[in-house]
Amino acid sequence: MSAEQRRRVVGASPPVKDAVQKVCGTLTYPVDFALAGMLHGAILRSEHAHARIRGIDASRALELPGVIGVVTHEDAPEAEWNGVFLNYRGRIFDGAARFVGDEIGAVAATTPEVAREALRHIVVDYEPLPAVFDAEAAMSPEAPQVHESGNVREPLVEAWGDLEAAKAAAAEVVAADVSFGSQQMAPMGRNAAIAQWSGGSVTLYTGTQTSSEVKDAIAEAFGMPRSRVRVVGLPLGASFGEFWSNNFMMVACLLARKVRRPVKIELSNSECMAHVKRRHEERCRASMGATAGGDITFVDVYHLFDNGGYGFKDDVGFLVPDLWGAHAPAGRFECQGVSTNLVTAGCMRGVGDVTMGSVVERLADQLAERCGLDPLEFRIRNQIRPGDVLRMAWGEHLLRRDEQGRKRLIDEVAAAAPAELRERWPELFRLSSGSTVEMLRSAAEEFGWQEKFVGWGRPYYAEGPLRRAVGLGTGIHCCGEEMEGNTDATVRLMKDGSVKLYCAVGRHGTSADTTQAMVAAETLGIALEMIEVEAGDTDACPWSRGSIASTTMFRTGFKTWAASLDAKRQLLELAGREVFDCAAVDLDIRDGVIYTTEALRAADAGGRAPAGGVPIPDVMMRDREDTFGPTDSITGRPDFPMPPSMTFARHFAAHFVDLEVDVETGKIRLLRYLAAQDSGTVVHPQVLEGQVIGGAVLGAGFALCEQLHFDERGRVVNPSLSDYKVLRSSDFPPEAAVMFAEDADPVGPYGARSAGEAPTAAPAPAIAQAVYNAIGVWVDVPMTPERVLLAIETCGQARTITNGSR
Amino acid sequence: MAHFHVNGQRHELEIEPHETLAEVLRERLGLHGVRVSCGEGECGSCTVLLDGLPATSCLMLALQAEGREITTIEGLGTEDDLHPLQQAFIDEQGFQCGVCTPGIILSSKALLDGNPHPTADEVATALSGHVCRCGAYTQIVRSVLRAADEMEAADER
């Protein structure tokens, strides 16, 4: 019997752990959370995009009944704190404002209303400074400098092969210059931070995708040992990267320290949309060439993006070069981050691969058209397959090599791994598993691609003002990364046979706590109901990257598996010694009962229930020979490291869309949608389907309507759902379908990889291609009716309509 | 004193004229299943039923709901006694983060009360006053269709 057939939990779709609480409205989100004696805080925000603060006079605010205290830059610690992947760098307050709405102080009061009222009585003496709102302009040495360290980050360059020779040799070359406005996470359910100090230690309750990173940030900001910081991550609404470690969380801690009472800061929806974080504004200039037969010869990308006021990133976390560059003899990807006086920008779901990816996909489509290939064939011919070289294999410089030039590290790590994993160890810097190829083939058949694709720039249906056409697009993203720290998990088996799993993952709707518990249940041979998960408390969970960068199933899942394996080994050793009088390797667990492997084999062969089992509690409760007492608990820890995911693992998406363009109104209507996903083994099909459709909806929103707008003073002018349009149920085909290609990964838990970001990258290319096929012109995102109409009007003059507006 | 009928119970409260229904339900009565998100009637997460019809409680003054039958998610079913809609949303996983879920379930209740056998498109249209930022629309529509089937089957039994 194969391992797959024996699986009892992985591959099923049980109700997720908090399903009942979610449908009954009983789950406690940060806005619902309260502590006894708690005060309420409100944040004082800058009116200017760039200013020095000469002084803040809060005396009138402090006279208001109910106002307890105020903090400003004079109360802020000197230290800077760094957010995950440099999505933030700065002091809590430092007497300067770098975007409209920047935090410059805060008030604590007995009610939220009084706190907000008090803000109006604080007088700020600003010295306005020239501001810069455009990444291109901010590159100039004469531009206003957002930080003392300058606006321009070190560019990140990935290059291979002889680019100039490849350019000269290409039979077909296409180029594009595309600008992207900012997408806003537009999080649901607001967020709040509740801080409480006690004896020099602080506890923060908040909604975050990564409580470990928030803990690190607080320790850094306040210059205190991590042992004195506890963060309790609570369930939160859709986040998409908005709530990692944010400065409002630090402000809550500062305010609570000042007033010596617990303080809660609740953000309004418009604060979340205008003042916390957003996707970068980006500009991608790229060219790509191919042979006459349709083999890509080079990809050349220069990608500029703005970091806003406090981002410090030098890249957009892109994996496009892997998807499209594996077979290209030459390529160059240069990424350039620049500070501006706009609200802080950072990683949003599918970062880089959503934006840069859609440009490279368009170029690929244009090459395919010139070479007389359809988009399906062109992708199957050129995209990466297992065993192919990875262009974004970061970290090669860290490898130690022996005298023969062999990689020592991986041999050492592999040697320490359990036997079954050792045999499957991946080759570094090559793709371990998965690709778009199988998905493209099977999804094309399911979708009826051959019947509906009638040639480039041609609709399959035209009647009155309506044009219908199909399009497809592909996406890639990482499976976590390790460069800023390793993810960890522990498992505690209790004497009644129940288990607590400690792994710091986000609870923002991905059901990662449930899928981690499934991995533990499968490994331990116990029922899912016997496992509960602590996913947010840093005093209980070991350090984890959290649920960012598609880390959770691949990297956290690996550690959950490894910790469970360790607990199981300890339990079986105990059972072998104290009960069965045999070696641990001759025992196994099924449905919470320990049997000899021989008994299990015999039962399975005979199709009957196994005999001679001893339930886990009976082993745990038995008085031991060595301690003369029972075993109260067993703690399982991963006892071998995970190989670096960036060097071998990716996840993939291939999306197909059928849509209608009304050439009189410019409106695009999605008629049919099919999303194929390669995440390796599917642990929970229903959860993964949700991630895939959710990614498609977010990506389609980016393609069709979502864009933050700023005025000439750098203010967000549409920080509300009435002015910032997102897709609703009537905007997306209710019968959208999902298909899985399950190319099991050699390292991921039970062959699983990651899930959530590639499906956000595939929709925009698929929709743009379908629109091109419908109306014969490429339109930049967001493809609003206005832009579509403009594209049709200027169709005769220009083949590409670019995003010229701010 | 204002009189409120919430989830079959009567409450007498002294309230300020400017208090919204959402504030009274959440802060005075502790009904946190009334999720407030956008605060301007756009997202639908604060939806409650007023005499059986959906209303965004963040935009409504509490006094406007006086004397009317108010149903929040807490009044539809409980953790031990789920409404068929709640069960169907669990079975089809018609949610992700769960913030929009109570409001969507209540609007679905109103839809099925008036139209027990809607099509997928009718469900999608009826719920277009709600934002599910996670994008679980396909699963949400499936949940409502499943609930309609289950409720019909239960009626026949």
What does the model show?
The complex is a heterodimer of chains A (806) and B (157). In chain A, helix 17 packs parallel to helix 18. Chain A folds into four domains: 3-26 and 483-636, Aldehyde oxidase/xanthine dehydrogenase, molybdopterin binding domain (Aldehyde Oxidoreductase, domain 4, 2-Layer Sandwich); 32-131 and 185-275, Aldehyde oxidase/xanthine dehydrogenase, a/b hammerhead (Aldehyde Oxidoreductase, domain 3), CATH 3.90.1170; 135-184 and 278-359, 2-Layer Sandwich (Aldehyde Oxidoreductase, domain 4), CATH 3.30.365.10; 434-478 and 649-801, 2-Layer Sandwich (Aldehyde Oxidoreductase, domain 4). Chain A has 24 helices and 33 strands. The longest helix of chain A is centred in the last third of the chain and has 29 residues, at 552-580. By secondary structure, chain A is of the alpha+beta class. In chain A, helix 24 (785-793) links the parallel strand 32 (778-779) and strand 33. Chain A is 28% helix and 24% strand. In chain B, helix 3 (84-91) packs across helix 6. Chain B has 157 residues and is α+β, with helices and mostly antiparallel strands. Helices cover 39% and strands 13% of the residues of chain B. The model of chain B has no long low-confidence stretch (mean pLDDT 97). Chains A and B meet through helix 2 and helix 21 of A and helix 3, helix 4, helix 5 and helix 6 of B.
